[in-house]
Amino acid sequence: MAGEPYRLVHYLRFATVFLVLLWIFVQFGGTGDGRNQYTSLFRKFRDQRVVFISDFLNHDINGPYNGDGLSDLCTSKKWTPGLLLTCDAVPGSMADVKNGILTCMRVAIEIGAEVILPDIMLRSTMDLSDITPHDSGPRRGVPLEHFFDRAYLLNTMDQFCPELKIHESRNDFFDDPNVLTPVPLNIYKVPGVEIAQNLPGSAGKLVLEGDKLGKQITDMINKKSPPNTRKYPLRVDLRPTPSYAMPSFADPPPLRKYFGRLLRVRPDLRALAAGMLFNLQKAFDLVIDPRQGIDVDSFVGVELRTQPDPLAFPPYTVQASDALSYILANNMSQVFLTEGATPEDASAFAERCRDFDVNVVTKENLVEGPDVLALSELSYDERFLVDYEVALHAGLFTGNAQSSFAWSVGLRREFAFGEPGAADSSHLNGTLRWHSPYSTLYGKGHVGDDFRRAIWP
Fold it and tell me: Which residues span the membrane (predicted)?
């Protein structure tokens, strides 16, 4: 009898070793179908929410990052050690900020300079339409990682564009007085730069020939600071940092498709979005697998913009009518409503959809436990970052073409899932601005054309 406890402990040791070895084999051993079968079996015994969030964080809707286009761009440039580009803090929505930071990086690459990436200028918390509060003197903001994953950016750049040296801040040059008096750079005032003619209804200031911009800026710098007498480091200060100046649509497809993915939403917000998607799947018995792209019959993401904003969006009645027409035309019954609508309009839209047996949920309906507090502490634009991750995984998506967020979602989904469709798709009703099999934007004329031509989604 005394030996029984000993034998039990002995057996438990063997069982523990066996389970550890099995886990190691599942994670790192085996190949092909055999390994897949063991991995699938092992997944069934894990917490499904944890598995779902892990899958979400480890899989992108476009698949793995392809840096061939970025690598080709960087290797084609002439780089000047000691030439330093700084960029003014970028204001605006999450899409505006993202494109502004990417523009700063692209200008640095075009002129072969080192770079200090710009900060993010936060909008007023008292008036959402005021995106540049206290706008006097140099713009100050919060670091890039307030929105985006800095470690991912640096690792990806180090792999595909090691030529671009990215400095943490101007503190790297605290003992060098040369950086105190920069060469000012305003893209729109560079000699030779021409602005593309705007289409009716578009308000952008797009550079006409982006492939010439690098040489035009370099010629201007050389005139102000002749290379034969120049002392390094030489700082060039881009001010303001324009969000929609570069004609991204003219980039080679391998570059345009992936350049915007350098700025990935910060990990905690992506995890929050993943938890919401998991709860959405459970609540409505949907098929959502982050490893497998999207299921077009799952749910539709809808953006309504009626909160105060610098841009003039159509009235709620117009936006809501377009969205409801789209939902019904596609026989959808589950809706995820993003940020952007006032609480009153969000409630009115949900009530109207209910008349057609359509369920509308928001972020607040999809969080539980610690995520409730995490969501409540997010700013207006941080909440849009969560929406961005959720909307990318929607079966369908619709919004207004006046919205840079809607264009970012629509174009990213186009790159991942399908090409644009005919602009006169009659079954969708409303005034169509842009349409793909998976996303539709409404708007009159050419509204938002500056976004369409300049966004790296």
Answer: 12-30
